[in-house]
Amino acid sequence: MSRFRASLLLAGALASLALLAPGTGVAHRHVSSFRATIDYAVDGDTLRIREADGELAYVRLIGIDTPEDVKPGYPVECGARAAARSMERLAPEGAEVTLRYDSVADHHDIYGRILAHAFIGGRQLEPVQLRRGLAYVYDYEGQAFDGRARFYAAQDRARSEGRGSWSACGGDFHSAEPGKQN
Fold it and tell me: Residue 23: is it exposed, middle or buried by C-beta count within 10 angstroms (0-12/13-18/19+)?
């Protein structure tokens, strides 16, 4: 075998290993799930994680949206603080989280955040936020996602039982929090 061909084979093998290495942004494209540690809950639908290699990343949970409380230039939306507190309890600092990519949705959004479903202790976080009435189903541009029917069922039950923002905000998750209007 020529040195050139051996070099090509070695380069290809090293590139393959790099694609499989945990914690690299490239690797995540080739796995269905990975584990990380919660750094903190940003809000009701976004987490900051520490990957196995020590890198920090943001994760936007697939299939839900919650009211905003950290969007610069905008008032705190009705139910935002309750949704954020709920996520802080569901995903406390230091907890191990399993992040599973969706079989349909993209792996990253336009802001570079990881798009994934989150599980702590075997419990999926998104349906909990929906059942508590602190989130609503969000299908970006009508895109399907894993568990969509189950998410809608959880949302419909929370709405019919008047949980969370469904009663506190009249179901308007993006209205200003009462008493906080500009």
Answer: middle
